[in-house]
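[Discussion] Sanity-checking designs against the backbone

I'm trying to build intuition for which residues belong where. Below is a structure token string of 116 positions. I'd appreciate it if someone posts a full sequence so I can compare it with mine line by line.
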């Protein structure tokens, strides 16, 4: 298939077209990734409970496990006890089957480097 480039005067293409195309390509390649996983990461703040928004950032989905990173052990503990609510919201948005587990990883924020 040859690439078709946008020409002035052509109607705008909708963004959903590329999402559908990428989802099809990814599923054919068999990487285990999906367009929904990309949407989950991209729309994190709209999907997750409020207490997750400022404390955790999604890294991605591998298999059916969502990996999120937090800055402290305290945040990890709080959020680990709240994964059922997060999984319900994800299931409600994407249907069952995208994510069935959440892994929380602590990645401490690095302190600013002091010049000597």
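Best answer:
Here's mine. Compare freely.
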């Amino acid at each position: 298939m040859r690439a078709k480039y946008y020409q002035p005067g052509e109607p705008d293409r909708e963004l959903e077209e590329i999402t559908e195309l990428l989802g099809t390509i990814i599923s054919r390649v068999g990487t285990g990734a999906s367009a929904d996983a990309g949407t989950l990461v991209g729309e994190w703040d709209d999907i997750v409970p409020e207490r997750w928004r400022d404390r955790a950032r999604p890294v991605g989905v591998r298999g059916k496990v969502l990996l999120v990173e937090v800055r402290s052990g305290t945040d990890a503990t709080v959020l680990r006890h709240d994964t059922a609510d997060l999984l319900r919201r994800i299931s409600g948005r994407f249907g069952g089957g995208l994510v069935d587990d959440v892994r929380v990883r602590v990645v401490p924020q690095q302190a600013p480097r002091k010049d000597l």
